[in-house]
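Researcher: Here's a chain I'd like modeled. Treat it as a single chain, no partners, no ligands.
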Amino acid sequence: MLSSQLEKKGFFIATLITFWYSSNIGVLLLNKLLLSNYGFRFPIFLTMCHMTACAVLSYVSIVFLKIAPFQRIKSRSQFFRIATLSVVFCGSVVGGNISLRYLPVSFNQAVGATTPFFTALFAYLMTRKQEAWVTYGCLVPVVTGVIIASGGEPSFHLYGFIMCIGATAARAFKSVLQGVLLSSEGEKLNSMNLLLYMSPIAVLVLLPAALVMEPNVVDVTMTLATEHRYLGLLILVNSAMAYGANLLNFLVTKHTSALTLQVLGNAKGAVAVVISILIFQNPVTFIGIAGYTMTVMGVVAYGESKRRHK
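Model: Modeled as a single isolated chain. Structure tokens:
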């Protein structure tokens, strides 16, 4: 009986992890397909579609499906803190999507792997939190690897690289800021409720930005939809997958641990790189692969060092 229950639980977790990989890598590849191959050059509008899906599906999941307990905002100050996080979150997602217009997924993932470097930097600057010197030492190959990969990247694009670095830094800044702004026990929100509140705010921020910076988005989208029959469906699926990635992040952490999610995240980047190269056939060099490998190894060593010196 116990063996059967363990087998069922193991199968459930394995299924969760499979869907987690599929949604995270799928949304990344679909973003690249839409923004580069389909000529849908509207990263702000695409991000707004993602946030709209997250707002609607988060509400359905929490209020009707009870996937997570509903948590109310308790004060005006908590609302403004969540709004601040939402704006930073918008910046990170938009920057990442803009970078995909100019960079291959493989290089995008290499740069994104430097998140621990920026997290450690912002944690020190904002909270004076210090790690062991060994832990900081592990960040050297993280940064060095990206520098090497940049030099060996045949499709290197400076603007795309700056956007990718900015998105990576914003993602790290948001994680540190979240710990600072929502630090009291009464104001802490689980990731699903935080997404529920951040998503509508993000839509309100992105809508005027899209209208000003991408004024012809509706006309061009309608034209592209006549040329590519499944464009609308792809955007819809892409937006749903963006929510699915967040939902599965929550479920995998709930049924395993944050450490498991971190390990899976390290492996996810490598899997995404291999799949993207096979699909998009972007040229790679030995130097680029060596640089990315060094970065991933540095990230793994950094995570292990943090765990040991906690």
